[in-house]
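ok, trying the design again with the full structure, not the truncated one.
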């Protein structure tokens, strides 16, 4: 299992816009239509990555916990579906249903959105404040498949809480580790 770290985009970077179809909601979304009043989480995932499968329940829990508090949430898959057909849009819709993902799960066919975010792996997390400025990029928590550390979403939850309560987000921020994005 390859372990690719996320690229650590500079804090303060403005959120790149996108206009992508949601495989689970039959409409397209932009950053402006998914963003929350207090902030926005953008996470790059895919259907087959063991790192994503390991944490998908916690990702959904975090989205459910914080969307009601004004945090927007969106997942994006940018994988090459020609070589990885298990990540095709119809399979994304099935994955969303199976995993109770009721926030937009977008398909980035051209991979331009992943490039704009400098996404490198799945899962790869980005948290933007209410002014669309990056305040956190990195891991969900220290848990990885088969390392024995329980999944708790500590790093991402801590960053969201800091944003919500106007506190400084903890440094240093650790990169996420996961499967590399499957580039065309």
């Amino acid at each position: 299992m390859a372990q690719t770290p996320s690229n650590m985009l500079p804090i303060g970077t403005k959120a790149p816009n996108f206009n992508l179809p949601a495989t689970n909601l039959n409409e397209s979304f932009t950053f402006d239509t998914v963003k929350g009043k207090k902030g926005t989480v953008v996470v790059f995932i895919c259907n087959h990555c063991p790192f994503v499968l390991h944490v998908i329940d916690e990702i959904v829990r975090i989205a459910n916990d914080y969307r009601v508090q004004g945090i927007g949430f969106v997942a994006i898959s940018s994988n090459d579906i020609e070589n990885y057909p298990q990540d095709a849009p119809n399979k994304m819709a099935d994955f969303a249903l199976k995993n109770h993902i009721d926030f937009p799960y977008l398909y980035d066919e051209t991979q331009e959105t992943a490039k704009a975010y400098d996404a490198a792996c799945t899962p790869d997390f980005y948290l933007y404040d209410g002014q669309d400025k990056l305040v956190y990029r990195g891991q969900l928590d220290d848990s990885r498949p088969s390392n024995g550390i329980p999944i708790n979403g500590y790093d991402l939850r801590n960053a969201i809480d800091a944003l919500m309560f106007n506190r400084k987000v903890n440094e240093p921020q650790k990169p996420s580790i996961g499967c590399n994005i499957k580039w065309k």
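Keeping the full-length input from now on. The helical segments are 31-34, 50-67, 89-98, 112-117, 154-164.
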